[in-house]
Amino acid sequence: MKVSKNIESLMSSLQILPGVGPKTAKRLSLFLLGENKEGAKNLSSSIDTALNSIKHCKICGVLNDLDECAICTDLSRDEKYLCIVESTSDLFAIEETNEFQGKYFVLNGLLSPIDGIGPDELKIKKLLNLCTQREIKEVIIALNSTLEGEATSYFLLENLKEMNIKVTKLAEGVPAGGDLDYVDNNTLKRAFSWRRELGDKS
Amino acid sequence: MKVSKNIESLMSSLQILPGVGPKTAKRLSLFLLGENKEGAKNLSSSIDTALNSIKHCKICGVLNDLDECAICTDLSRDEKYLCIVESTSDLFAIEETNEFQGKYFVLNGLLSPIDGIGPDELKIKKLLNLCTQREIKEVIIALNSTLEGEATSYFLLENLKEMNIKVTKLAEGVPAGGDLDYVDNNTLKRAFSWRRELGDKS
After folding, report:
1. pLDDT tens per residue, range B167-198
2. Which of B30, B37, B43 to mutate to test the interface with A (most CBs of A within 10 A)?
């Protein structure tokens, strides 16, 4: 027995979200329709507004509301430092640390020949052009430490080396607050080889 | 640094959902805007459609699209059996079992003097009128086994007893598939007192 066609279709629309199954979709639907109609209205209009305005920044590729994003056009940020990330979400994560004051390039993917994602799809030519146009001091590769991430890092390194640009990558090691007992072997191995002398300020 | 005003406002709109914190909101927003724009469009329009059509059934109080819901107007269901539930969500849960072929009354809340919810807010007069109008054989109270649920059950029982109506309530005991070791004391106590003889078919 279908109690309500429209509630059922709201439930299935919610199930496209990662991590939302039928039970959660039911709970969320009834919450939106029964307890928080105002919030539901806001949610629907924020989705519409964001969908209508969202685009990739022409320079760095981040998802945002502008043709050229707030970071690319911010003159107070040092464009001699370029951080390469896989996605908008990774850029947000780095921004939240307040650690980096340079600029970004968002690949919007990783090299993956099986899925047909090559250097053209990731706009690597554009990235290399950017590096010749700017006086780059350092490119920081901040990609995930997965197979695709490593392959993409290696490919970028090969190309940037030819241009005599200093290339660094994020340190790999024990996560902050992590318990050595629970850290996997590979991470521990890398934490050993990336160790640094205590008192080293560099 | 706000990277995008519209993504930020989508993130805060998503955080009204129960169980969605800032990290999940970020993940969901970027999923909707980057990977599943079609799904995002559907979600926003399903919310609008549901919000515009949703109302409480005039008879039983369930949230649905119609003035009188599909269950109340279904002549094949036995109106001599009336199941009282707290919310639309509980009604859905019972419907999914396919165990009950009677009708419902949805209280849309539980008695709670502290929050100012008395018999009038729960439309108990309407419920009692329904019981006099229909030839009720049995009222099944299917409320949560919480303090408010118990108080509401007791209040209903008192009122229905005067009308000489048989009142039952859902069995309390060990959950199906439950491990005795992990069942709390109160549940186990009740499971003992509600035990029945094996071979009992009633």
Report:
1. 998 888 888 877 878 888 888 888 888 877 77
2. B43
